[in-house]
Amino acid sequence: MLKLLIVEDEKITRESLETLIPWNELGIGEIKSAKNGQEALETVKNYIPDILLCDVRMPRMDGIEFSKRLKNIFPKCKIVFISGYAEKEYLLSAIRLNAIDYIEKPLDIEKIKSTMKKVVEIIEFERKEEEEKERLKEHYNESIYYAATQLVQQLLKDHTDYSVFQKYAAEDFLTSTLDVIVGFVDWKAEEDHLDEMVSKEIYDQVLGQDLTSRIAVLFSFLSQNSFVLICSEKSEIDINKAANILKEVFLQKGEICLMVATSIKASQVKESIGNMLKILKKNVFYNGFGNSYTYEGFVDKREQEISFDFEKFEEYLKWDDIKRAKEEIEKLYFWLKSNQGIEIEKVKNIFFEMLLIAYQVGRQRKITQLLDEAGRAKKWSEIEQKLTLNQLKEVIYETLDGIFELFTTRGNLNRKVYQIMRFIEENFYDKHLSVQKIANHFYFSPNYLCSMFKKATGKTLNDYITEVRIEKAKQLLKDNSIKLYEIAERVGFGDPNYFSALFKKKVGMTPSEFRERYYV
């Protein structure tokens, strides 16, 4: 059922329109009314009309002005004007607003019914048309997704089957130079068919293809975390625009990192994509996600030697000196960040060896059992799945924190939590104060830090940071000479509006209201 909005300044006419017309029979199930354009604007803040039945001449805001504003908000709303004045200027305005009809007063109920019946039919026809377009688009997206996957697979083979490209009228990908984007994604959530959803979304909104166009771009996942987009130079798709669209599509689904190459010969696309993936994978590993790179060819750099003092690391663990063990990891971490030529597999092997040593020491201290073959395989799989050096370090930190939790927290938990709380109270003004920053200061993993703090205090670390900042803000509010935006800055908020909103959420009133109630 459709929604109707009646805007009429004459009360008798307005009420008659609401009660005398059999709206349900016409397919209109909900009706609201207003006595002028100003009041109607307030109504549409919480009400989306399908049809507007509106008087032209009204006080405060006439029907023409209101209809213009409504069209800006709800362009699909159908308009029918009513007026006692068949003046040329109003008729022209109605035409410009694509009004369905213009009914003159005195109103004829049959005329209104026939007009509304026509409006309802127009809306139903348009909705069916939109549904059909969506159905065709969905079918098209599914087909093109399947075709793109096949074509990308062919391009990455040593011997390409030309007939596959003929089948999809995609010969341009074999006869022209190509622009290529490869990327890696770190998904925010583990859901089935995320890759298919992303692919279809890209073909749906990104590249502006209509249902009659040739395939102008190929997008396909190469693995769960890697993908490629290929444009033919004969298409009108700008590769930089395509890169921006990829970022937009992935925005809510995960972090990505991209590498762009232009003017690649079709005969070299397999080799180029392989090299791009290799370079980008290493860049992601060492520098994390969120960056974009330009491919400038592959240079096989001489690899540096890497070393780590496993004996010293094991000795620290045996003496329960987790802090110094982590300092050794930090030294290695920063050396690797500065010398990014080491193969990822070698780095993962070193971190895996650390993990095995930790379990071995834990076994000696009767904290853990020695890992059997299945356990080792499971831990290696956990290491292997990590895409960045940061994630790898996090695995080791969490392992150390977990294994040695009894020794690092027994008898000392309250003292450590107290130290953390003091640190927050001394650094609340820092806009960049975060769980990660606190974890780095105390050499804990963020997950372990949050778990330990919540267990000891019953509140989250972020809640405590907010609590301290709000209490400091209350103290500053005593001084009327300090402006609110200055208070926001002094307690660690970069955005005064966010500070006010959060203060109201926690205290039940805005900072201004709090100051006025207690200190003015």
Automatic annotation (TrEMBL):
Alphabetically ordered keywords of this record: Cytoplasm, DNA-binding, Phosphoprotein, Transcription, Transcription regulation, Two-component regulatory system
HTH araC/xylS-type domain sequence ranges: 418-517
Q: Which residues carry this modification: 4-aspartylphosphate?
A: 55
Q: What is this protein called?
A: Two component transcriptional regulator, AraC family
| Record's keyword annotation contains Oxidoreductase | no
Kindly list the GO CC terms recorded for this protein: cytoplasm
SUPFAM superfamilies (alphabetical): CheY-like (SSF52172), Homeodomain-like (SSF46689)
**Domain Response regulatory spans what residues?**
3-120
**Protein's organism:** Caldicellulosiruptor owensensis (strain ATCC 700167 / DSM 13100 / OL)
Q: Name one GO molecular function term.
A: DNA-binding transcription factor activity
